Amino acid sequence: MSTSNFTRRGLLKTGAVTGAGLALPTIFTSGAMAFTNEPTGGSVTLGFNVPQSGAYADEGADELRAYELAVEHLNGGGDGGMMNTFSSKVLEGNGIMGKKVEFVTGDTQTKSDAARASAKSMIEKDGAVMITGGSSSGVAIAVQGLCQEAGVIFMAGLTHSNDTTGKDKKANGFRHFFNAYMSAAALAPVLKNLYGTDRKAYHLTADYSWGWTQEESIAAATEAMGWETVNKVRTPLGAGDFSSYITPILQTDADVLVLNHYGGDMVNSLTNAVQFGLRDKMVNGKNFEIVVPLYSRLMARGAGANVKGIHGSTNWHWSLQDEGSKAFVKSFGTKYGFPPSQAAHTVYCQTLLYADAVARAGSFNPCAVGEALEDFQFDGLGNGPTLYRAGDHQCFKDVLVVRGKENPTSEFDLLEVVEVTPAAQVTYDVDHPMFAGGALGECNAG
Amino acid sequence: METILSQLLNGLDKGSAYALIALGLTLIFGTLGVVNFAHGAIFMIGAFCAVTLSRIFSISFETIDPTKTDFLGNPAVIKTPYVEAWFGPEMGHWLIDWSVPLAILFSIPIMIAVGYIMERGLIKHFYKRPHADQILVTFGLAIVLQEVIKYFYGANPISTPAPEAFKGSYDFGALLGFEANRIVYPYWRLVYFMFAAVVISAVFSFLRFTTFGMVVRAGMADRETVGLLGINIDRRFTFMFGLAAAVAGTAGVMYAPVLSPNYHMGMDFLVLSFVVVVVGGMGSLPGAVAAGFLLGVLESFASMNEVKSIIPGIDQIIIYVVAIVILLTRPRGLMGKKGVMED
Fold first, then answer.
1. Which of A12, A348, B259, B313 has the most beta carbons within 10 angstroms of its beta carbon?
2. Biological process GO annotation list (chain A) (predicted)?
3. Which class does domain A181-314 fall in?
4. List of chain A residues whose C-beta atoms are within 8 Å of the C-beta of residue B181
5. Region B88-113: what's the mean pLDDT?
């Protein structure tokens, strides 16, 4: 036989106390913190997550310079840079919504796990309300996923893979930088004019997310204009000496080499290709040509004279003559003594765009910020009028086709812009097959 | 056939670099019994000696050219190298153009000094410690050295071209009766191969035909007995450490035009070179050289499309597969002494 001490009144009391106890943290949480890291004092913290060591450390250093410049301008210091030319005029140089902008930095080491760890630390320990940076698509995709889970905004830095705003896109992630599809769409007409429609292309491709989508995009665009793809060879990341991948090209009838490489790999593979005489080779009565779909000035410096006459695409270049670009180059160049890279430009823009979206939304809530960024149209940040498309959080703007300069006048004057491809020419549908396989999902405020 | 010949040439070239680094590693292991994980960093410092001399020759004075503007729109600063002002434009240009070969002379005393300081300042304290301790301390030293280089030179590769006279490539295919331009080999890589052959021959001749070399070889065989004869074998072994550093350093200098130097190039070569040493046989100089060329050639063949289509990814693991097979069947390596890494 069992006995029970429960009474109806006791059960009601216990239920009420338990219910109140369970509800208590929610009440406190919802009252004190409506979303992850809601700024409560006189300042707001941004997390700058860039490669400070590893192969892309120079690009990371340039990104950090641009971030610091953006913070200085947001807080009312310096000459204001592109805040003066930005079409949106809500930023007043008093921080973001009156809160002084502070920042913390992390080292991604260009490794996904290290990048996630440093972003997590900035969100949980430093209270960063927004994470930005990176210099690799693998890293960007990993950190974007983390920010989605944590409920903060991710303003991607240097990431060129279609997947970042394709199959791996997230509601909390936004990309100002262009992508592999846009590079191919901008390059193809220029290549057609330069080299004709009867060409045979051989691809060497970095064996990871960015390389695969770059190869897919450029092969599709060139095949559409009549080129034949002879071979696609995947090369290990950081292979060092690419000579054993270059020499088989000599034994084919290929007359174009497409180097889907970036950073040190591009420097090495291009150097090898030139050493093995590919620039001087004639195939079927045509000059053998080399194409580097994604260029950067920092890479061009590493490759030296080997870049002369070689075409590729870039997101932005310091020689642009629009008012925004001139203001940024003046501001950056005066502070640091050399012109900014495209990496510096894109992260500076991302910081201003985030601050502007907060100010327009009147809230740091990531869902409100996301809403303010979606389908936002702006100008004055270089590359002409730009759209932050709501469907995939990808920016659409003019894309530059550049060529390695034959007679550089300075150590910075390595590339020249040969074509500014209008945004309309590089725009694609949200459900384009190259970007399929993922969903933006719902915004997460934490 | 053309592809095989091309990859054979590539393999010999890669093998030259592996063999030169492995030679130095083996010299240090054979004489001092130290497993030196900082040896790749010495190769990297050698490459940066070429970068440094090139920059020294390019040090310039500045004049303002009011007719041109810089990127900020200010009057342009024109830089004129001092060597052109001092020696005339032609001689000055020649010095800058030939800075890589000239850097060999510049690097030898530097590398010997680096090796001497490394050995006297740190490594000698670890002679009687286990190999694991030696690996840890030299690996740490390698990281310190590469971070120092990164601090001064940045993380991006630095273009360091070969002299104009060695630009372009030689058409081996035409020589062998094949179609023109199907088997070519860059002139500078030919220079590198010949340089490796000369250095390897010089080291072997030094050890084989000089009294100093004979004493060192005797010391490698029985250090205590040589010491009992009143010979300061420790001093000779310290010299051998400096010699090994000079070999790796000059190998790095000459490698600079092959691939633009960067701060982690030493690490890229180090692990592979250790595998080369193990495959060749720890302590065996001929083994290190033979294994260097063998693995360089195998690595090149493994990167052929025809091979990768049968075994995907083989190009990235071939060296380790060979190492596993050799260690399982012949733990002392191809030409190693009995008892070294063998029960």
1. A348
2. amino acid transport
3. alpha beta
4. 250, 277, 281-282
5. 94
